[in-house]
Amino acid sequence: MKAMIFSAGLGTRFKPWTDNHPKALALVNGKSLLQRNIEYLQQYNIHEVVVNVHHFAEQVTAAIKENNGWGSNVVISDETSEVLETGGGLLKARHLLEGSEPFLSLNVDILTDLDLHKLTAFHRQHEQLVSFGITNRKSSRVLLFDDVNRLYGWRNVQSGEEKGPVLTFPEQGKSKEGLKEMAYSCVVIYQPDIFNLMRQQGKFSIIETYLDLAAEQVILGYDHSGDRLVDVGKPESVGVAEKLFT
C-alpha cells in the first residue's frame, strides 16, 4: 500500500515556529512530526510514501534527503507554486498514488496509534469507496454519522453551520437529530476510483469531496475511540504529544 502525508500547510496556528520552519519538522521528543509519521507507516509495512510540500518546501526536501527518507522511499509532490489543501493536494499526487490497490493518507500534524491493519480490514470488509478513522473526542467541527457509521454530513459545533447529503436526501429515512457527532482522525483509506469521482478542482479540502459523494457512495467511519491521538496543531500541544509519544 502507498501512503501520502499531507505536509504542505502554512501552519498558521503553530507560530512562531512556522515563521521560519515548516510544521512538518516540528519536534516531539527529538523527532520531527514527519519522521514520526513515516515511522508509524513503517510499522504496517508501508514504505512507499508521497509527501507534499509548500511552506519552506526546501527544508522538508532537505530533511528527507539527509535522512534517506528515514528508511522509506519518499517521493515529493511539489506544491510550491500554490498550496492546494488536502483535496487538491491528493488530486495533484494522483499519478504517484493511483493503481489497482487502495492507498492511504494522513496529516503530518496528527499523531496516533490507530491500528492500520484493523482500518484496512474494515475497509476491505465493507468494500466502500472511502474509510477513515473517527473518535468521540471533542472538536469544534465534527462529521455526522448514522448508527452504522455511514457519513451523512458535517457540522460546525460553535456556529451551527451544517453541510452534507443529510440535508438533501431525506429518502434515506434518516433524521439529522438522530445522527451522532464524531471527530475526524485524518487517517484515510481510499479506493483508487476516488480520482475518477472527484468533481472539485484546484484548492479544496478532501472533506468537500466526502460530502459531495456521500449521497451516492458509501463512506464509512471507523471508530477507534480510546486510541492515542493528538492534533499537534498548536505549540502548546507539543507537551501533550510528548507525554503520549516517547
Top keywords for this entry?
single chain, 246 residues, alpha/beta, Spore Coat Polysaccharide Biosynthesis Protein SpsA, Chain A, 2 domains, ten-stranded mixed beta sheet, two-stranded antiparallel sheet, 8 helices, 14 strands, 26% helix
SSE topology sketch:
Blueprint: E1 2-6, E2 27-28, E3 31-32, H1 33-42, E4 48-53, H2 57-66, E5 73-78, H3 85-92, H4 94-97, E6 103-107, E7 110-112, H5 116-126, E8 130-135, E9 141-145, E10 151-156, E11 162-163, E12 180-190, H6 194-197, H7 206-213, E13 219-223, E14 229-231, H8 237-244
Parallel strand pairs: 1-4, 1-6, 4-5, 8-13
Antiparallel strand pairs: 2-3, 6-12, 7-14, 8-12, 9-10, 9-12, 10-11
Helix pairs in contact: 3-7
How would you explain this protein's 3D organization?
The protein is built from eight helices and 14 strands. Helix 3 (85-92) crosses helix 7. With 246 residues, the protein is of the alpha/beta class. The model has no long low-confidence stretch (mean pLDDT 94). The chain is globular. The chain folds into two domains: 1-109, Spore Coat Polysaccharide Biosynthesis Protein SpsA, Chain A; 114-227, Alpha-Beta Complex (Spore Coat Polysaccharide Biosynthesis Protein SpsA, Chain A), CATH 3.90.550.10. The protein is 26% helix and 27% strand. The strands form three sheets. Strands 1, 4, 5, 6, 8, 9, 10, 11, 12 and 13 form a ten-stranded mixed beta sheet that branches. It has a two-stranded antiparallel sheet with strand order 2-3. Strands 7-14 form a two-stranded antiparallel ribbon. Strand 10 and strand 11 (162-163) form a beta hairpin.
